[in-house]
């Protein structure tokens, strides 16, 4: 498997077997298969028929593992679709420095990425299901008996203006790649327009949001949303969860998604800017994750087409 990060931890079958042996010996005898669809944050191994092992790729990954284990059982009953149930959390050991988790396996396929010049994808049902999931997550109560510092936070729940230095840097890095796949000058223009939107320098809403609601973290069965993965929710401005509209929904599905969520023009433009921002991060995985590269370039193209650029 490709090395994605400079500080990548060494994770292989022998390591996972050893961790399982020390944590719960019967699991160590189950079939173990490393998944090709492993993402950039965790390495994934299917364990037997019913379980999945998730191990952070980098030092510091314990934070997300522990947040998922803490918040998933508290929030999952309120959600419209399942999220992976955390069965166990493994402790750091001398051979692996991070916490790791075992979750229930959920069957399904990742939805196809939509292209701006592709045929209609009949994504209306998926749009309905995604909107229902977001609504159920946003409606989940935020605990009032905890100090603010104990609530999970992420930069993806902050104001657009806070992202400007990173976006400028990512634009330069994407330009250095040469034939990028969409018009980066138009992308920069769209970003600058977004920074002039009302409220672009502030956050006005605080609720639960997923933060990485993309095709890699969705499972579908028979055209319906079956599960949402990587469920490490945060509290903040939920606009970033709109980005999924420009990846897996065609224009008709996108409009239905927006209607169901009741998104006004300003918030929609902010969501589009978030989608562009995340698309521009793709330079980091340009040579190592070709599937993600294609998906994020498609997002950028959809964003520009949606903005008429």
Please tell me about this protein's structure.
The chain has 309 residues and is an alpha+beta fold. It has nine helices and nine strands. The strands form three sheets. The protein has a five-stranded antiparallel β-sheet, with helices on both faces. Helix 3 runs parallel beside helix 7, helix 4 packs antiparallel against helix 5 and helix 5 crosses helix 8. InterPro entries: AGP_Transferase, Aminoglycoside_PTrfase, Kinase-like_dom_sf.
The share of residues in extended strands comes to 5-15%
Task: Tell me the strand order in the biggest sheet.
Answer: 1-2-3-5-4
Portion of residues in helices?
25-40%
Major beta sheet summary: 5 strands, antiparallel
Number of strands: 9
**Gyration radius, in Å:** 19 Å
Total helical elements:
9
Distance between the termini: 37 Å
- Mean pLDDT, all residues: 94
Organism: Candidatus Avipropionibacterium avicola
Pfam family, one: APH
Protein name: Aminoglycoside phosphotransferase family protein
Domain Aminoglycoside phosphotransferase: 41-274
Which properties best describe this structure?
309 residues, alpha+beta, five-stranded antiparallel β-sheet, 9 helices
Explain the layout of strands and helices.
Layout (H helix, E strand, L loop, with lengths): L12 H11 L8 E3 L7 E6 L3 E6 L5 H14 L10 E5 L9 E5 L19 H16 L24 H12 L8 H12 L11 E3 L8 E4 L2 E5 L5 E3 L8 H4 L2 H11 L3 H15 L10 H17 L3
């Amino acid at each position: 498997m490709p090395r994605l990060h400079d500080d990548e931890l060494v994770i292989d079958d022998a390591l996972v077997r050893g961790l399982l042996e020390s944590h719960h010996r019967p699991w160590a005898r189950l079939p173990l298969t490393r998944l090709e669809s492993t993402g950039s944050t965790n390495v994934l191994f299917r364990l037997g028929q019913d379980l999945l092992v998730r191990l952070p790729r980098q030092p510091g990954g314990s934070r997300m593992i522990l947040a998922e284990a803490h918040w998933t059982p508290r929030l999952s009953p309120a959600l419209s679709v399942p999220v992976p149930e955390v069965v166990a959390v493994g402790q750091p050991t001398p051979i692996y420095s991070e916490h790791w988790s075992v979750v229930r396996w959920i069957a399904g396929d990742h939805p196809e990425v939509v292209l701006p010049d592709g045929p209609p994808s009949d994504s209306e049902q998926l749009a309905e299901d995604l909107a229902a999931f977001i609504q159920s997550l946003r409606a989940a109560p935020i605990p009032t008996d905890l100090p603010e510092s104990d609530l999970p936070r992420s930069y993806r729940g902050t104001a657009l203006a806070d992202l400007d230095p990173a976006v400028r840097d990512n634009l330069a890095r994407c330009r250095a790649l040469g034939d990028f796949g969409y018009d980066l000058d138009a992308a920069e223009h769209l970003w600058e327009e977004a920074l002039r939107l009302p409220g672009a320098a502030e956050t006005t809403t605080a609720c639960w949001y997923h933060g990485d609601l993309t095709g890699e973290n969705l499972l579908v069965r028979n055209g319906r949303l079956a599960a949402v993965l990587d469920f490490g929710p945060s509290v903040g401005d939920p606009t970033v969860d709109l980005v999924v509209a420009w990846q897996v929904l065609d224009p008709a599905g996108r409009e239905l998604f927006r209607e169901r969520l009741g998104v006004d023009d300003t918030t929609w433009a902010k969501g589009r800017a978030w989608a562009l921002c995340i698309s521009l991060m793709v330079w980091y995985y340009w040579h190592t994750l070709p599937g993600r590269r294609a998906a994020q370039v498609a997002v950028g193209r959809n964003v520009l087409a949606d903005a008429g650029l």
